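Retry 2 of 3 after timeout on previous attempt. Resubmitting structure tokens to design endpoint.
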């Protein structure tokens, strides 16, 4: 591959798997991780350093980085670290995240702000600095084939009770992906997103992930990086602005808001008339499906069933 990649939140779980896979594919890797708790508290560079040692032991090149992606200046230093260390930046994998789960009526302002900052601002900050670097190279006449891979979540695209902060941030990341892809394509940058199901310390804290099965484990974090490595290839230059749900060996390209039932009044609606139409169409009411039902539907389609 011969490229340089930044992977945020790469000390454990899915981020670690991304870093190892990109290194195995030939990329130099900046392993970024604060090493904090699930709630984003504390600092410990040792998880990032351990991943760097794994990569080096396998013959790859990597360096640790402890910048906070939610700090705009820190995100700039992270991008500069990659350029200073390896002379270039080609791939940015935004993966860092935390949890502060709480039912909406009990959620504090701090629990909301912290999660939004790490996930949504963290994606913006690193991408903005990387995009500025790639734009400068493009305007200088260099050919740019850069990649941004963002990380959403089933909670963000399907919704999940108790995660209004996390889900809102992850939904925002999906929208951020679509718009950034439209803006950065002119500079040779593709922007895509994964929404993974995987067994990590974050998901095990929130969900009953079951026991690890014998043989193939559909929730193994190692199932996610092949999607990322594929999207980072030069041959994937025309694939951009997409969100891929990954569950085991099933990769589903998600489609966001689309037109549904139409209620048309050529000269505008009267509220009472519209209400009558809604009640006629939905006599039992209508509500969003839960995350489990949505994911079951996606899984069924991947198996060719309904």
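Retry 2 succeeded. Sequence:
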């Amino acid at each position: 591959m011969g490229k340089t990649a930044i992977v945020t939140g790469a000390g454990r779980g899915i981020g670690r798997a991304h870093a190892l896979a990109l290194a195995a594919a030939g990329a130099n890797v900046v392993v970024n991780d604060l090493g904090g708790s699930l709630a984003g508290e504390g600092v410990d560079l040792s998880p990032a350093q351990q991943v760097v040692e794994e990569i080096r032991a396998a013959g790859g090149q990597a360096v640790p980085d402890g910048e906070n992606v939610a700090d705009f200046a820190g995100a700039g230093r992270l991008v500069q670290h990659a350029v200073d260390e390896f002379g270039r930046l080609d791939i940015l994998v935004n993966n860092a995240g935390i949890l502060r789960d709480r039912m909406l009526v009990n959620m504090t302002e701090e629990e909301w702000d912290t999660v939004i900052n790490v996930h949504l601002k963290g994606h913006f900050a690193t991408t903005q600095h990387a995009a500025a670097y790639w734009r400068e190279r493009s305007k200088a006449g260099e050919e740019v084939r850069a990649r941004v891979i963002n990380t959403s979540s089933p909670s963000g695209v399907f919704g999940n009770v108790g995660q209004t902060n996390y889900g809102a941030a992850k939904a925002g990341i999906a929208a951020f992906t679509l718009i950034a892809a439209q803006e950065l394509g002119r500079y040779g940058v593709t922007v895509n997103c994964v929404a993974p199901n995987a067994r990590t310390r974050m998901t095990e804290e929130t969900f009953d992930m079951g026991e690890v099965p014998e043989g193939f484990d559909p929730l193994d974090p190692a199932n996610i990086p092949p999607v990322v490595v594929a999207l980072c290839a030069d041959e994937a230059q025309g694939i951009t602005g997409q969100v891929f749900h990954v569950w085991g060996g099933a990769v589903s390209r998600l489609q966001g808001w689309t037109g549904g039932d139409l209620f048309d009044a050529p000269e505008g609606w009267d509220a009472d008339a519209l209400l009558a139409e809604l009640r006629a169409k939905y006599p039992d009411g209508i509500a969003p499906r839960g995350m489990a039902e949505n994911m079951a539907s996606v899984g069924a389609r991947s198996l060719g069933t309904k």
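Attempt log closed. The two ends are 40 Å apart (CA to CA).
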